Amino acid sequence: xxxxxxxxxxxxxxxLMPALADAQLPQGGPGxxxxxxxxxxxxxxxxxxxxxxxxxxxxxxxxxxxFTDNEYELRMTDGTEIxxxxxxxxxxxxxxxxxxxPLEVVKGLLPEKSFKHLNDNGYLGMxxxxxxxxNGYKVSLKTNAPDDITYSLTGDIIEIDY
Length: 162
Prior knowledge:
Layout (H helix, E strand, L loop, with lengths): L1 H21 L12 E3 L7 H10 L5 E7 L4 E6 L4 E4 L5 E5 L8 H7 L2 H9 L6 E7 L2 E6 L6 E5 L4 E5 L1
Antiparallel strand pairs: 1-2, 2-3, 3-4, 4-5, 5-6, 6-7, 7-8, 8-9
């Protein structure tokens, strides 16, 4: 059923291709920019404070602002990647490939209850990503058992993925 629907959608798109090919592009430039490089000083104050507190020795390797969502994608010189919301709240933070997030960062970002759970179960030194969700936090571990643990906003376990 899904394959049939996808095939019908693809056929519909292909039937429009000749008309789209004849359409003229607007003159005067490439169009509206939806993302672009920005200066780190343009980060919201909250994001700048986080970086000063937890990553004072790191430099910005690249910073891209998504103008449609007003979000920021930062990559630091050590390879750490952080997504910030428009108000400077962390949406996602990921350690460089094969590494883990610093203990003080994990402790500073997670509720005490989830931090304690990670510590009590020997997972504290394995956190390589924290992804904020509407209902809590998804913590990815550098281990295969478990891969991810999802906590509520108060730190209660919602799900453990193996």
